[in-house]
Amino acid sequence: MRKEFKIGLAGIAALVILFCGIKYLKGINMFKPESYYLVEFENVNGLPQSSPVFANGFKIGIVRDIQYNYAKPGHVLVGIELDEHMKIPKGSRAELVTEMLGTVKMNLLLDLQNTTYYNEGDTLPGSANNGLMGAAEQDLLPKLQQMMPKMDSILGSLNKLLADPALAQTLHNAEQLTASLNAASEQLNKLMSTDVPQVMGNVNDITANLKVISGNLKGVDYASTILKVDSTLANVRMLTDKLNRKDNTLGLLMNDSSLYQNLNATATNAASLLKDLETHPKRYVHFSLFGKKDK
C-alpha cells in the first residue's frame, strides 16, 4: 500500500506540475495574485487567449478567456487578468490594435484624470482599432478594386505591345546603335590618346614659330618701310605720268603712232629686200674666178 500510495502521489504531483507548466507557458502565473476584469467588444478580430495586455506600452496582464455574450447578442466578453496593484480609473477603455502582420493586441487607454476606479470583476468598454491593415482594407482595397479593370486593360495593351514585331526590331536597332556607339567611343579614345597629343604638339610648334615671327616683326621699323613704299609709289606714279605724256622720249615711243608706222614700213621694205635677194642674188653678190664682174 505504501508503494502504490507513493506512485499515485507522484502521478498527482506530475499532473499538477504539468498543469502549472502549461499555464506558465501561456503566461498565467498560478502563484501570483491577480485581479480579474471583463472587457466588452463587438468584434475581437481574432484575439487569441493568453495574448498580452498593455498599458502605456508595458505588459500588465494577459487575456484569460474569451466568451460570447449570449445575454447581449453581437457582443463578446474578454476576461483579462491584471497585476493586483493595477487600478483602472473609470472612464478608461480597452482597444484592440491589428498590427502589420495581422496579429492583434489589447491596449488599455487609461483615464488618468479620474480618481475613481473600477472594482474587480467590472466590465470595461472596448473598441477595435484596425491600424494600418484596417486603413488599407477600408481605403486601399476599394481603390484597388476600382483600378483592377484599368490594370487589365493596361496589361492587355502591354502584352499587345510586347507581341508587336516592331518592338523586337526596335530593340535590335538599339543593340546595333549601342555597338556603333561603343565602336565610336573606342575610336574617340584612340584619337584622344594618339592623334590629339600629336596635333597639340604641332599646335605648340606653330605657336612657338608665330611667337618668333611676332618677335621679328616687332623689330621691324614700320615707319621707314612705309616711307620707302610711299616714295616707290610716287616714283611709279611719276613714271606713269611721263609715259602718258608726249614731251619725253618714252612718251613719244608709247603714244606717237608715226613710230609704229615707220617701223612697219621698215619691216615691209626689209621683207621685200630679202625676197628680191632670194630671187636675184646675182644683183647683190658678184663672184668670178678671174676677177671679172658681170653686169
Automatic annotation (TrEMBL):
Residues 167-194 form a coiled coil. The keyword Transmembrane applies. Pfam families: MlaD. The chain crosses the membrane at residues 7-25. Keywords: Coiled coil, Membrane, Transmembrane, Transmembrane helix. It comes from the Bacteria. Residues 36-100 form the Mce/MlaD domain. PANTHER family: INTERMEMBRANE PHOSPHOLIPID TRANSPORT SYSTEM BINDING PROTEIN MLAD (PTHR33371:SF4), INTERMEMBRANE PHOSPHOLIPID TRANSPORT SYSTEM BINDING PROTEIN MLAD-RELATED (PTHR33371). This is MlaD family protein.
